[in-house]
Write a structure and sequence with these properties.
Jelly Rolls; four-stranded antiparallel beta sheet; six-stranded antiparallel beta sheet; alpha+beta; globular
Length: 198
């Protein structure tokens, strides 16, 4: 019998060695914007208190984020080559999120792009985790998860370790559990699309 895995889903993690310096510089900036722009918060989420700059501030076009953006873009290119996509990627949009106590983000996906990424600028592994839901969750009769076999997993959970970047296919549903402590959790989010040949 021949076994051939197809339609595989790859999630990659990279760690930014200069995060401490970037966090020290960008955390006060993000928190100040969170205070001054809270009136601009998106209201089409269930989690109406969780602050993000989607639609109000594109971090990919902000000079303050240049160093970290360049590193993220490099990691996305490595991801593209590793997975084997032939088309190059183009940056689409980026924003930051501020999670305070009781904040969360319901399940969603970024279906208008191809690759997404989450970077943990200011956080610790005790803060709210990120959950990714398996596409097979839509199947009524699915196997019980076997921890030794990723093909059977119904979800994957990542701790928000400061300086880590998670890159994943944009169609994957993901959420952020409720923040249960008084820490501030700041993440950066990025979307990338394919450069299609004419």
């Amino acid at each position: 019998m021949i076994h051939q895995p197809v339609f595989s889903t790859i999630i990659s993690i990279a760690s930014y060695e200069n995060n401490e310096e970037e966090a020290e510089k960008l955390t006060p900036y993000c928190l100040n914007l969170e205070k001054t722009k809270r009136k601009d918060i998106r209201t089409d989420w269930i989690s109406k208190n969780t602050f993000n700059t989607l639609g109000t501030l594109d971090i990919g076009k902000e000079d303050k984020f240049k160093d970290i953006n360049n590193w993220v873009f490099e990691q996305v290119e490595i991801y593209r080559k590793t997975v084997g996509y032939l088309n190059p990627m183009k940056y689409q949009q980026g924003w930051f999120n501020v999670y305070k106590k009781y904040d969360f983000q319901e399940y969603h996906h970024h279906s208008k792009c191809f690759i997404s990424a989450i970077y943990f600028l200011n956080s610790n592994e005790n803060n709210a985790k990120v959950f990714f839901k398996s596409p097979t969750n839509m199947i009524v009769n699915r196997p019980n998860p076997n921890q030794g076999n990723p093909f059977t997993w119904d979800k994957v959970i990542y701790k928000p370790i400061q300086g880590n970047l998670i890159i994943f296919p944009a169609h994957l549903e993901h959420c952020v559990e409720q923040q249960e402590n008084d820490d501030i959790r700041i993440s950066l989010a990025y979307n990338f699309d394919l450069c299609l040949e004419n």
